[in-house]
Amino acid sequence: RYLAAVDPASGPRRAPDCWRPLLQARRHPGVRPLQFALAGLHAHTGHDLALAVVDTCAALGCEPAGLEGGFERVGDLLAALEERAREDLVPGPDLLRIADPLTHLLGAWHPRQALDAAWTAARTLWALRRVPELAGECARGLDAAVGLTARMMLTPLPR
Fold first, then answer.
1. Nearest to residue 28, comparing CAs of 156, 123, 159?
2. Which of 39, 83, 100, 126 sits in a 20 to 30 Å window from 45, CA-based?
3. What's the pTM?
4. For the chain, what is the mean pLDDT?
């Protein structure tokens, strides 16, 4: 979904709410690389992954429960990626006092909680598939909520 939103060949279209903050803040000097990394993981996990589960179930003719093991493996990979990003991008212990706003801002987000929410969203959207209007409303609300959180994660910080 992200690649389709940023691909100029796909024609003019509005990026999903969950990805828009990343596109808008990409050149802001007060937004740190770790903020972009975690906001991107959040958009992917909170929005794209939930919709991918629904799309996959529809394509394979299975229930979400049949994908739970694979979802957990993807979750393990995302959690490891998040941990690695924090290790690579967070300043060392001498700079923690300076980085405190960054630590506070991004410390509230955790991939396991995001994955739990994504799984719940996927199951909810799957259950709503027979009521397309309500499923669409739920998906749009998910996109907006994830976008709001991504925007907060990208709050510019003093250098």
1. 156
2. 100
3. 0.84
4. 86
